C-alpha cells in the first residue's frame, strides 16, 4: 500500500459534507440551496459553511436571483471545481485499486 496517495487527497473536498455537495453538483449543472439542504439533510448554517469553504477554494459558484418574487440561491461547480473533483475521484480509484487482492 502507498500511504502517500492518502496524503494527496484534497482536504477541502474530503470532508463528508463537502464531498456530498461536490458529488451532487457533479451530476447536475446547478442545484438550489434548498435542494442541496433537503437532499443532504443539513441545517442552513451547516450547508452555508460548507458552500463558503468550497467557494473560497474556487470550486463552487453561487448565484443569487429571484423566482416568483422569492430569493433563489443556486450553486454550481466551477471549471476548477469539476477538475478538482475529477482528480479527487481518480485518486480514490487508485487507492481502491492498490488495496484489491
Main β-sheet description: 3 strands, antiparallel
Strand order of the largest sheet: 1-3-2
Poorly predicted ranges: none
Give the C-alpha Rg. Answer: 15 Å
Per CATH, the architecture is: Orthogonal Bundle
Put simply, the count of helices is 6
Structural category: alpha+beta
Integer average pLDDT: 94
Number of extended strands: 3
CATH superfamily: Winged helix-like DNA-binding domain superfamily/Winged helix DNA-binding domain
Structure, explained:
The chain is α+β, with helices and mostly antiparallel strands and 101 residues long. The protein has one domain (3-96): Winged helix-like DNA-binding domain superfamily/Winged helix DNA-binding domain (Arc Repressor Mutant, subunit A), CATH 1.10.10.10. Helices cover 60% and strands 18% of the residues. The protein has helices spanning 3-7, 11-14, 16-26, 33-40, 44-56, 79-98; strands at residues 31-32, 60-67, 70-77. The protein has a three-stranded antiparallel sheet. The radius of gyration is 15 Å and the shape is elongated. The chain starts with a helix and ends with a helix. The mean pLDDT is 94.
Amino acid at each position: 500500500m502507498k500511504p502517500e496517495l492518502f496524503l494527496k487527497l484534497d482536504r477541502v473536498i474530503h470532508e463528508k459534507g463537502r464531498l456530498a455537495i461536490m458529488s451532487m453538483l457533479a451530476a447536475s449543472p446547478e442545484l438550489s440551496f434548498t435542494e442541496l439542504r433537503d437532499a443532504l439533510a443539513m441545517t442552513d448554517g451547516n450547508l452555508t459553511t460548507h458552500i463558503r469553504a468550497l467557494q473560497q477554494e474556487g470550486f463552487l459558484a453561487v448565484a443569487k436571483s429571484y423566482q416568483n418574487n422569492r430569493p433563489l440561491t443556486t450553486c454550481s461547480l466551477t471549471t476548477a471545481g469539476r477538475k478538482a473533483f475529477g482528480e479527487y475521484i481518480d485518486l480514490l480509484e487508485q487507492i481502491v485499486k492498490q488495496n484489491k487482492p
